[in-house]
Amino acid sequence: MREVSPKFGPDGKIEKQITYQRRGTLLHPQQAKRWANQFLASAHKVFEKPDSAKEKELKKELDKAYKKIGKLEVELDFLRGCLERI
User: Fold this and answer.
1) CA 83 to CA 7: how far, in whole Å?
2) Domain residue spans in the chain?
3) Which residue, of 12, 17, 72, 83, is most buried by count of CB atoms within 10 Å of its CB?
């Protein structure tokens, strides 16, 4: 069986790495633990795609603009065809 380093343990124990890194610094152990817990609680957000209401609104406006551009291109082609017949 393969050995796993403490920083990438099978149950996600990155706390050991943080604890080792704080040695030799002027960081209180409780503060390091608090930061480690905050990181572990919100680490999944790094890989999630943000799904905010503003993004949805911008996407809706962009789709509306594309539809309008398509409609205007059809009208322009029609008017060019009419102009060529004259």
Assistant:
1) 72
2) 1-48, 49-86
3) 17
Instruction: Give residues with Cβ within 8 angstroms of 75, minimum separation 6.
Output: none
Residue 72 belongs to what H/E stretch?
Answer: helix 53-85
Distance CA 29, CA 8 (A): 21
Side chain identity, residue 18: I
Report pLDDT digits (tens) over 3-56. Answer: 444 454 455 555 555 544 555 566 777 888 888 889 888 887 777 776 777 888
Kindly state the tokens that stand for 7.
């920083």
Q: What is the pLDDT of residues 62-81, one digit of tens each?
A: 999 999 999 999 999 999 99
Q: Count CA atoms within 13 Å of residue 33 on its CB side.
A: 3
